[in-house]
Design brief:
4 helices; 2 domains; 264 residues; alpha+beta; Diaminopimelate Epimerase, Chain A, domain 1
Length: 264
């Protein structure tokens, strides 16, 4: 069986996108998912996103990590899938998307997409994670810890991010780990270690939102805030009644097919 896909990226966060309205994608085959997600031997991605039918919204988004596990929400992934769904005729420019974190709304604005995130929850400051920097936490659809550093370029994201991700304070499921700094103009710079990817990604939409809401809580910036991501792209975090908004580019990279099962 050949599975058509579209490769997209949102601010450098890259995804394999599949129109799975017939629910034929092998979501339980973790070995297959790991193979196509591999950057050396497969297509390569930060996650696999499926468009599936929904009785509650225009469509359902399922997000599968490169290790085969599922995640409730991905901000940049949701922005990309919104643009793809619009271009496929699945949804209008303004749409509702069912996710594991609840219903979110999105609006396609050409190559840019604005997404309404679920309301942030569980905000905590100055957590005891035994680091030299202050660490805060908030859930913006998925859990995010944020370490406030002087220079994000000097942080060993791979090793320190893994320590935060696996810290007992966030057991049993762990957390995403962000390293952020506040710039003189009130903008923010961030690098993110993503749970499920188990490494640094070039951007993370819910991570950018976490950084912005936590910086605003500390009085260091105001929303809307621009967040500079590791891949060189910017995301804008704004506020809507009772929640947050995430805006940025959602770009096509290429289309392709992957083979599943026995070749004929």
């Amino acid at each position: 069986m050949k599975i058509p896909f579209t490769k997209m990226h949102g601010a450098g966060n890259d995804f394999i996108m599949v129109d799975d309205r017939k629910r034929s994608f092998p979501v339980a085959d973790k070995a297959f998912i790991e193979r196509i997600a591999s950057r050396r031997t497969g297509v390569g991605c930060d996650g696999i996103l499926l468009i599936q039918p929904s009785e509650r919204a225009d469509f359902r988004m399922r997000f599968i990590n490169p290790d085969g596990g599922e995640q409730d929400m991905c901000g940049n992934g949701a922005r990309c899938i919104a643009r793809l769904a619009y271009d496929l005729g699945v949804a209008a420019e303004k749409m509702a998307i069912e996710t594991g974190a609840g219903i979110v709304k999105a609006e396609v604005l050409g190559a840019r997409v604005r997404l309404g995130l679920t309301a942030p929850e569980g905000l905590r400051q100055d957590l005891p994670v035994e680091l030299e920097w202050p660490v805060d936490f908030v859930n913006t659809g998925v859990p995010h810890a944020v370490a406030w550093v002087d220079d994000v370029a000097r942080v060993d994201v791979a090793s320190v991010g893994k320590r935060i991700r696996e810290h007992a304070l966030f057991a049993p499921f762990g957390t995403n780990a962000n390293f952020a700094a506040v710039e003189a103009d009130g903008s923010l710079t961030v690098r993110t270690y993503e749970r499920g990817v188990e490494g640094e990604t070039l951007a993370c939409g819910t991570g950018a939102a976490a950084v912005a809401v936590l910086a605003a809580e500390r009085g260091w910036t105001k929303l809307p805030a621009t967040v500079h991501c590791a891949g060189g792209f910017d995301l804008v975090i704004g506020s809507i009644p009772g929640a947050l908004s995430l805006a940025g580019g959602a770009e096509y990279v290429f289309d392709g097919e992957v083979e599943y099962g026995n070749r004929i």
